[in-house]
Amino acid sequence: MRLPDDVLGMLLLVVAGGYAAMALALPGGAPGDYGPEVFPLLISTLTAAASLSLVFRGLRARRAASMPAVREPRNWLQGAAICAAILAVVFVMPILGFALTICPILFLIFCMLGVRIRVAVLISILATFAIQLIFGTYLLVPLPNGPSFLRWMNF
Amino acid sequence: MSSLELAFNLVAQWDVVISVGLAAIFGLFVGAIPGLTATMAMAVLVPITFYLDPIPAVGAMVSCSAMAIFAGDIPAMLLRMPGTPASAAYADEGYRMTLRGEAERALGAGLLFSAIGGLFGTVVLMIAAPMLAEVALEFSSYEYFWLALLGLTSAVFIASKDAPKALISLMIGLGVATIGLENPSGQPRFNFGSIELLAGVNFIAALIGLFAVSEVLRNVINGGLVAPKLDQIRIGNPVREWGQLIRRYWRQQLRGSSLGVVIGALPGAGADIASWMAYAVSRRFSRDPKKFGTGHLEGIVESTSANNAALGGAWVPALVFGVPGDSITAIVIGVLYMKGMNPGPTLFLQNPENIYAVFLIFIAANVLMIGFGWTAISIAKRILTVPRNVLMPIILVFCITGAYASNNGMFDVGVMLAFGILGYLMEENGIPIAPCILGLVLGELVESNFITSMLKSDGELLAFLQRPISLGLGIVTILIWCIPLVMMVRSRLQGKALAATTTGDH
């Protein structure tokens, strides 16, 4: 998602404005005149200045603008699927546990990226086992266990 | 028992040896894969160091970063695909040597001068850091403010080709650092009612997202999952000509290492800038400048010495002031805080054995680099042909588990995803990520020292320039701000002169 400099600049200008508005709405509380809004206001001012510079640069370069890189729609879908997989982990892992969540998700991502099914099954199982061993067993990270009848999977 | 003996005892432990060794292998592997940076290797390593004792944790970071920077040379020279940005300066030069059948010479020189450059940087770190620490004890909020600002300024105006975009990246980092309660007034800011965000954004989750998840997304979306072909290249014995190379290129080695240390020590600029500058300097002072770009070893020697020496240099401001020299040391500072080894001058007074242990690990890592590097070169073909469509999902699961492990909660996996998307969008639009990380690390330091100084001086801005060191740091910072202005005036004058010459010709 490559935006021309002027569009990017305008977008960031809006973000800087929103951030400044939120900063101004902060309740005071610091001693003297330097409350919690001072530093955020400095940040939003500098962001606005840099964004304006991008807008002017973008407008000047409009005529000479090069074509943005074209991405295959399939690649965008794959990128979205990766993000969806991470979101799924956030919500599913506390319920199903580490191994039962990661292994199928890893398998699905492998398949989506064109890995042969037999290889995908093998690597998904091995990688899940290895990562659970490293983090769960050796580094003692309390990875989610999932339902009690599936705890045998947590080696 | 002296501090040095204590340091030897700290380093000569099995957990240190094993973690340094494994991190070295990991660094070599990640560094050798084109597109995966040394910073990404460090980001993925952070959650693991969380569960190690302080010395093995820092040792793992040192050896991983040193190996990754060297390993970037391998695909750079064999495929013209730099493994890390630090190898980009001489990728073309090395590849041309490979095409001439001189791959072993190019790789051998890369390995040798990387190790020597790394050792040079370590010696400077060992000498300069304790000396600077004594000076740093005199620092007040004014000096710390200017120093942090100098780091941020360097990241925007020196380390980046596009100053407005680098400034935006920095502001994103500083903006994210304002989230939560950690501010001089103690008021919760921008947490949108979230209890998790009261403590601020989890630095590790943000880091993994910005560097690792964004890389996975880039590989998937930009279609970079095809493994490079490496059929016709034969690699022989890379150490065959070392004696001859040292005799012939000692000047370039010394100049590159010195420049690398200086650039590395400058807050905000790191190994990649050092490498490019060393290459340019080498060409400028070479007796055969015309040979540059045709597969000439001189520039490779100077640049590869510089990028490894920069690593040691970057640790100087990181250890002494807590101001990172580059994005790698920005991560290291996070780990040092986690481990209770808070960077700053008092670290040298209260726990000198810890600092000496870090120095010893630096030496060991650079010596180990020769053995590990040789092995990596020998098996380079296999490393380089690991399919990306297998590697990327595994890295993704490491990222998820690492982000979860940083706080044992799923919220940080969500934070990682948000920053992964942000990192991808930033890079897609030419906004560099490194200034954002520096902003995240230095945000609190800049704000607290700025507000404290303003309160101390009752709003008098001149007070920021009334102490000798703060005056010096302030002048350097303001001079760097003027660089774009000077460049703009210079290019306009050159344009006018060119136009006048063209008109005169007609």
TrEMBL record, chain A:
Domain DUF1468 as annotated: residue spans: 8-144
Pfam families: TctB
Transmembrane segments: 7-26, 38-59, 80-113, 119-141
Superkingdom of origin organism: Bacteria
Keywords, ordered alphabetically: Membrane, Transmembrane, Transmembrane helix
Protein name (Swiss-Prot/TrEMBL): Tripartite tricarboxylate transporter TctB family protein
Automatic annotation (TrEMBL), chain B:
InterPro entries the UniProt entry points to: DUF112_TM
Coiled coil: none
KW Transmembrane helix (keyword) present: yes
Record's keyword terms, sorted: Membrane, Transmembrane, Transmembrane helix
Domain DUF112: 20-438
Pfam families for the chain: TctA (PF01970)
Identification of the protein by name: TctA family transporter
Organism of derivation: Hoeflea marina
